[in-house]
Specification:
Elements: E1 5-9, H1 13-25, E2 29-34, E3 45-48, E4 51-54, H2 65-74, E5 77-78, E6 90-93, E7 96-99, E8 106-107, E9 113-117, E10 120-124, E11 127-130, H3 137-143, H4 145-160, H5 169-177, H6 179-194, H7 204-209, H8 215-227, E12 245-249, H9 253-266, E13 270-273, E14 276-282, E15 287-293, E16 299-303, E17 306-309, H10 313-320, H11 327-335, E18 338-348, E19 367-370, E20 379-382, H12 383-386, E21 397-405, H13 410-413, H14 416-429, E22 438-451, H15 460-467, E23 473-475, H16 478-481, H17 487-503, H18 509-512, H19 522-528
């Protein structure tokens, strides 16, 4: 009897998770069609002259035990998990110890996770502010008494007279933090990321990305830290924006997905790279086949029983063909918008900004959010602090300067040399580096990185409901659902889709419920679906 097959478009976290889950939990053979030549999608790692770039930065942290255990199945925690500077199973900072949960898989070798400290700050007024904002003496000094007073009165006023309706992102921020704090720390950065005013962005973005974070939660978290000792790696009672530690693959996130891709192929799964999907053939309620151009220029067609799509929904609709899609559905699809992403890797001798406690050491930040309005750079990564193994020479500092744009913007089309010069100039102008300390640079461009919550997004449910007519089509992942998912959310959508196939569930509402509220619905969903142990390799 012919084995059932699943055609999976895209080898990012959702696509590869779906392939692995099918192989280890069923007899369905996955065929993965990847447009590029690399694994991991936006979660890949790019190597440049021995230095590695993490595009966008990927903290390996989830409130879902299922995802945490899945990661550790492929890459156990390093025996000295915090990296070469740590020698035991706890990390020490802020006068506390954070211990690993009992039973955490550990191993030696290169294919392991490091345990890292999380530190993100905002750079504004040429000063550093903790992110999320902490009501500390330093914050009060940096802001000044006048601005602090305005922030306090604004928050109290909003608490007494909350908005009656929350429809856009500006209203969402003000409802959580008050108008003055929103205008000080949220508005300009958010508009730099999205390129439109906050009152034109759906409040749903805030509900997904910030969830329960508020001034009240931040204060409660601060006082809980003062009186709590031992806390495990999973930090289940902590808002995601407040986590203090995370796991990280030794050689960056792409290392994990290369390992998963290798296992998929060893177990009998098929991965085609350089395959560009041109068209999708469908009947009234089933997808039948996918056609496209292979890396050698030939045209190929793949029939299947199940189809997973992680491609942007706009491209999915185009692939289905204009003649089969109603005009109003195509109108919504064509109106979906995306923000694109440019990373400039700068190798420098040193940073101009210093750690105030120890000026001779590198600052500890993973991310720095650049709030200064006079520069176009939106965020900065310090790769040394994600993993020391991302940097070839430990005596240098390897940073990623991030720009958010459209493919029609100047920064997207600018020649690489000019783009590198712009990044160096801007960081020098705001005092983060000295332009003379730049040793080398490279530029990476990533299209459709962020699905936008404006354009025709307010009608997105009409488009989604139309596509759900295809009973064997599963839209998963960030672009596959036009949903600003983190890596773990994308994985959970794929896992849930496989769950549905195995139990014969046709309703896909549980897939679309991932990353809405309530800790990804993990308590209900994970209790329903038992997850078996990994099967032996079929290749064996």
């Amino acid at each position: 009897m012919k084995k059932r097959t699943a055609i999976i478009i895209g080898a990012g976290p959702a696509g590869l998770t779906a392939a692995y889950e099918l192989l280890t939990r069923s007899d369905i053979v996955p065929i993965v069609l990847e447009k590029s030549t690399y694994m991991g999608g936006i979660s890949r790692t790019v190597e440049y002259k021995g230095n590695r770039i993490d595009i966008g930065g990927h903290r390996f942290f989830s409130k879902s035990d299922r995802v945490m255990n899945w990661w550790l199945r492929h890459m156990p925690l390093a025996t000295n998990g915090a990296g070469p500077d740590k020698r035991n199973h706890a990390i020490h900072y802020q006068n506390q110890q954070r211990f690993l949960p009992d039973g955490t898989p550990q191993a030696d070798g290169d294919e392991t996770m490091l345990l890292r400290e999380r530190r993100s700050r905002i750079y504004f007024l040429r000063k550093f502010f903790d992110y999320p904002i902490q009501l500390s003496a330093k914050t009060l000094r940096n802001l000044g008494i006048v601005r602090v007073t305005r922030i306090g009165f604004s928050y109290v006023w909003n608490a007494l007279f909350p908005p009656s309706r929350i429809e856009n992102l500006e209203q969402f921020f003000i409802s959580r933090f008050g108008g003055e704090l929103y205008r000080t720390f949220f508005r300009s950065y958010t508009e730099k990321v999205w390129g439109v005013p906050c009152d034109q962005i759906s409040a749903e973005w805030g509900a997904q990305r910030i969830k329960g974070l508020s001034i009240t939660k931040t204060i409660a978290h601060h006082f809980r830290k003062l009186f709590t000792g031992k806390q495990d790696l999973r930090q289940k009672q902590v808002e995601t924006s407040l986590i203090e530690q995370f796991m990280y693959p030794r050689l960056g996130p792409g290392q994990l997905w290369e390992i998963v891709a290798r296992k998929v192929q060893e177990m009998g799964g098929i991965i085609h790279t350089g395959f560009d999907v041109d068209s999708i053939r469908a009947g009234d309620d089933l997808v039948l086949s996918v056609c496209g151009t292979a890396s050698d220029g030939s045209c190929r067609s793949f029939e299947g029983d199940y189809f997973f799509s992680t491609m942007p929904i706009k491209e999915l609709v185009h692939s289905l063909g204009a003649e089969s899609i109603p005009d109003e559905v195509r109108e919504i699809s064509d109106g979906l918008q995306y923000r694109d992403f440019v990373t400039v890797g700068l190798l420098v001798n040193k940073l101009a900004v210093k750690d105030h406690k120890n000026p001779n050491t590198l600052i500890k930040d993973n991310w720095i959010y650049i709030q200064e309005p006079e520069v176009r750079a939106g965020r900065l990564q310090i790769f040394n602090n994600w993993s020391p193994y991302l940097v070839r020479d430990p005596n240098t500092v390897w940073i990623g300067v991030e720009y958010f744009c459209y493919e029609t913007d100047e920064v997207w089309t600018m020649p690489e040399k000019d783009m590198a010069s712009l990044a160096a100039r801007e960081l020098s102008a705001i005092g983060i580096i000295d332009e003379a300390d730049v040793l080398d640079a490279t530029v990476l461009r990533m299209p459709k990185t962020y699905p936008a919550y404006f354009g025709t997004y307010d009608r997105f449910n009409e488009l989604r409901d139309y596509l759900l007519r295809y009973r064997n089509l599963f839209m998963v992942g960030r672009n596959g659902m036009h949903k600003y998912n983190n890596q773990d959310h994308s994985m959970l959508t794929a896992m849930t889709a496989v769950d549905n196939i195995l139990i014969g569930r046709l309703d896909q509402s549980n897939i679309w419920a991932v990353n809405t509220e309530m800790d990804y619905h993990e308590e209900r969903e994970e209790a329903e679906i038992p997850v078996p142990e990994e099967k032996h390799s079929r290749a064996a």
